[in-house]
Amino acid sequence: MSAPGGPLPTLTSGFTFGWSRFGLLAIGGAIVAVMLAAAAFAPVVAPYDPYALDIAGMLGGPSGHHLLGTDELGRDVLSRTIFATRISIEVALIAVAIGLTGGTLVGLTAAYFGGLVDMVLMRLMEVLFSFPAILLAVILMASLGTNILNAMLAIGIIFIPGFSRLARATAHHVLRQQYIDAARSLGMGDARLIAREILPNVFAPLLVEAAVAFSYAVLLESALSFLGLGAQPPEPSWGNMLNTGRGFMEQAPWLSIVPGLALFLCVLGFNLLGDGLRDAFDPHLKD
Amino acid sequence: MVDLAPSRGKEVLRADGITIEARHRRRGRGVIARDVSLAIHEGEIVGLIGESGSGKTLTAKALLGLLPRGVRASAGSARLRGVDLLSLAPDALRRVRGEQIALIPQDALHALNPVMTVGAQVGEPFVIHRGAKWAAALRQAVDLLALVQLPEPEKRIAEYPHQFSGGMQQRAMIAMGLALGPSLIVADEPTTALDVTVQARILALVRQLRDRTGAAFLFITHDLGIVGELCDWVYVMYAGQVVEAGATRRIFADPRHPYTRALIAATPPIARRADRLAAIPGQIPSPFEPTLGCRFAARCTRLFARCAAEPPPVDVAPGHMARCWLAEDGHG
Fold first, then answer.
1. Where are chain B's structural domains?
2. Contact state of A283 with B173 under an 8 Å Cβ cutoff
3. Phi and psi at residue B322, in whole multiples of 5°?
4. Does residue B34 carry a pLDDT above 70?
5. Residue B306's Cα: distance from chain center in Å?
6. Cβ separation of B114 and A201 shorter than 8 Å?
7. With an 8 Å Cβ cutoff, is B178 touching chain A?
8. How many CB atoms lie within 10 A of CB A16?
């Protein structure tokens, strides 16, 4: 879709809205930007090697040397938390991409062709939807094997029904619009109709959903890692750090507080960003 | 009988006996249009008038192959320059649309894709049908927007539909319809959503474009005023049937069908203030209600026994037809 007039307006294309909304978008954007930067530049930003052991300095509290203390093996908590951002962002990014692509494909197919295709696809989605997310993830991980790639896949599959419902509902609405008839009356074929008329018009709500799903993916990855199904030690992840911290709650509370806080900020950031995007992508608020 | 028909050019569209049926889950089969025949010649603006539910819009959609799910043209033909649109395969029909026949829809705002610039939409037919590059298509869009008298077209092509006023949106839709120089342009109440002054300008534009391009227009409306002002020929539809047709001047001067008469009488006079607006009592019959005799019988003021029992004959005089038992003697 390299056509002029592109499918979606960019964030900077001159819209005005209330300061409070802009403020939330800015805060969310800033948190997300910091998280992304931390993930991308982890080796540069982190003061220590996240795997470097220091048995003598284990369970040390926050100090000048170790700003956020050390864990039970003497590893720098700040460095481990920064490196864990990497895992979280990576898993969330790929999981959301799987969910968004799969869900959009299923939803658009169901809406466009209707009838039996619609029925079969959506009943299948309902079956997936009826499992609690964590349970489904555990089942998938159990059958696929425990590693971080399968965690991405499992979380992605969990997202497919949600995205497919949203894509289908939005596409239904779009298909009833007069511009679809107008496009057909100009001789547009199915493929072009879906790519140029339907997809760009269902994309905005899907993107908002993606931002929200992103925060959910971060939470799910942490939950899986906490249960030992996601990132495997010694690889740092907020989830397995929390699990370790659980055993030292009284002696070394920073072991739980630091990754917990990181998780909280990440989820908050993506939620604020999602809300902000919803407003920004509404074409009626532009101009 | 004097032939009041203006001299007509080459035939563009000949629709013969189009019948449109709908399937409804509970109410069964309904006939939305019954035996509709139309002829449109080069350079003509032909009006198709009727109230809501008369089947005029679906008749037009049948020509474009855009009937909604559950509705189909079950009989008849519609030859556009000799090619029957109703029996074309989907792919062949797709090539005809935009190239030979185009639609100007009722509500321009909703007929424009909100997330694409106007320029991209007006230029797109060249990409679809002629394999043009986007840069070339955009240049064509500028020319087309200039043709429909949109100010500053070079600047406007980069804007989105919601940045346009209602009149400008409708101009953009007209430009899109004209893009590839189709033989027939179906305009589905293109001015209904506009205020009166804008409406007048759009109608003037349609007339100018007809004169410049020689394209034929099928103009669907429920406004008799527009028909009188714009159309060379008019087809009056009621409950799925063409009840009267002929040259516009003639229909206004000598309406033969009671429904046409009632429509003309229901147009409020401009010169003096009417105490009460004239209306036609009753409702248009549902397509799911079968009728034995005349479809208009229930609302007709000149009803007699035969009307309800037998369908009225089609009275054909040169350049004028009416579907009424009384049409022949001019007392319809």
1. 109-181
2. no
3. -145, 145
4. yes
5. 32
6. yes
7. no
8. 8
Instruction: List the single residue in B with minimal CA-CA distance to A199.
Output: B115
With contacts defined as CB-CB under 8 Å, which chain A residues touch B71?
none
Q: What is the distance of C-alpha B49 from the center of its chain?
A: 7
Give the tens place of pLDDT for each residue, B92-150: 999 999 899 999 988 888 899 988 999 999 999 999 999 889 999 999 999 999 999 99
- Each residue's pLDDT tens digit, B198-230: 888 889 999 999 998 888 999 999 888 889 889
Closest CA to B212 of B146, B157, B168, B164: B146
Band the pLDDT of A194: cuts 50, 70, 90.
confident
Q: Is B128 within 8 Å of A188 when comparing Cβ atoms?
A: yes
Average pLDDT for A196-205: 88
The bridge status of strand B11-24 relative to strand B28-41 is: antiparallel
Alpha carbons B257 and B267: distance in angstroms, whole number = 16
Q: How many CB pairs under 8 A join A and B?
A: 104
Interchain pair B162, A287: CB under 8 A: yes
Nearest-by-Cβ selection for A283 from B129, B134, B160:
B160
The answer to whether the CB of B37 falls within 8 A of the CB of B323 is no
Among A118, A136, A117, which residue's Cα sits nearest to residue A127? A136
- Taking CA atoms, A79 is separated from A31, A34, A48, A86, in Å, by 18, 15, 6, 11
In this structure, the strands spanning B241-247 and B83-84 are: unpaired
Label residue A287 by pLDDT band (50, 70, 90): very low
Two tokens, residue A285: 């608020």
**Amino acid identity at A146:** T
CB proximity under 8 Å: A 164-183 to B: 177-179, 181-183
* Euclidean distance between the first and the last CA atom of chain A, given in angstroms as a whole number: 24
Mean pLDDT in residue range B190-197: 83
A78-111: per-residue pLDDT in tens? 999 999 999 899 999 999 999 999 999 999 999 9
What structural domains and CATH numbers belong to chain A? Answer: 86-285 (1.10.3720.10)
- Cα A258 from Cα A242, distance rounded (Å): 9
CB atoms < 10 A from the CB of B253, how many? Answer: 10
pLDDT above 80 for B84: yes
**For the CA atoms of A236, A239, A243, A249, what is the dihedral angle to 10 degrees?**
90
Give the closest of B101, B117, B162 to A4, CB-based. B117
**Residue B139 CA to its chain's centroid (Å):** 30
> Which element (helix H / strand E) includes A178?
helix A178-185
A77, A65 Cβ separation under 8 angstroms: no
- Summarised one tens digit per residue, pLDDT across range A207-255 is 888 988 998 999 999 999 998 888 888 889 999 999 998 888 888 888 9
Q: What are phi and psi of B138, to 5 degrees?
A: -70, -35
Q: In degrees to the nearest 10, what's the CA dihedral of A64, A66, A68, A71? A: -150
Using the predicted structure, report yes or no on whether residue B13 has a pLDDT greater than 80.
yes
What's the CA gap between A186 and B180, in Å, rounded? 10
Burial class of B199 by CB neighbour count within 10 A (0 to 12, 13 to 18, 19+): buried
Distance CA B246, CA B232 (A): 9
Q: What is the mean pLDDT of residues B267-280?
A: 69
* B96 to A9: CB separation less than 8 angstroms, yes or no: no
Question: Taking a C-beta distance cutoff of 8 angstroms, is the pair B20, B71 a contact?
Answer: yes
- pTM here is 0.75
Whole-number Å distance between alpha carbons of B54 and B32: 8
